[in-house]
Fold this sequence. Notes:
This protein has a single domain (2-80), classed as Ubiquitin-like (UB roll), CATH 3.10.20. The longest helix is centred in the last third of the chain and has 12 residues, at 76-87. It has a five-stranded mixed β-sheet with strand order 2-1-5-3-4, covered by helices on one side. It is elongated, with a radius of gyration of 21 Å. Helices cover 25% and strands 20% of the residues. The model has no long low-confidence stretch (mean pLDDT 79). A hairpin with a 2-residue loop joins strand 3 (46-49) and strand 4 (52-53). By secondary structure, the chain is of the alpha+beta class.
Amino acid sequence: MVALAVAPRQVSEIRVKLPKGLTAAGAIAASGLLTNVPDAHVDALALAIWGKKVAPTHVMRQGDRLELLSPLRVDPKVARRERFARQGSKSAGLFAQDRGARPPRR
């Protein structure tokens, strides 16, 4: 299977029958997923099998799910810091919700 996220929450998946010994690059070509994708976007894609990055020369096996990954737009650490700055410490974190009065400890 070859998967490509064309937009947030829009994933195109194509099941492809591949001959033994075919590489990841060959699987992409066989799937035809990149025919309508601009060349500039294709050059930025990374390859992964079930979320683990692989090289285009990786030999595909039965049951592999080849994913074409777009680069991140925002670093997740930076996004978390910005979200925390907007929300403040009272509405974020594990103990943000008041669970009501607790019985005294004995």
